[in-house]
Amino acid sequence: MKRFAARRIYLSSEQRMLDLHVVELDDSGIVRTVFPLCEEISHTEWVSGIIVIAPGFPPRRPEEPFSGYADRLRSQPAAPLHAVRIAPFNLSATEFTPHSRVIPLFSPPITRI
After folding, report:
1. What residues have CB less than 8 Å from 1, skipping those under 6 apart?
2. I want to staple 54 with a disulfide (CB 3.0 to 4.6 A). Which of 73, 80, 83, 90 is the partner?
3. Residue ranges of the chain with pLDDT lower than 70?
4. Whole-prediction pTM value?
5. Helices first, then strands: H and E counts in the chain
């Protein structure tokens, strides 16, 4: 299990932005829960940018605003929820920056043979 906290978390299924929340992922990277950050929690990684929770993440189109990307996230087929971080991100404008990247919060462990 891994926990990540961010200033903002976007829930695509509810089209809603949450302030100061934590997302908890299971060992396969599926979102288990999202809850308010009320106090410091051990083993929680604070990340910059915004965390987005959705069943899938299409590639970002050049010059696409966040609102357009959010619309496309809502059209993803129902599936277990996953989380990505978008950084850098203009929090005050709720908008991508020219250098924004979509970064998975979970990557499976490397198996050595």
Report:
1. 24, 25, 26, 27, 32
2. 73
3. 108-113
4. 0.90
5. 1, 7
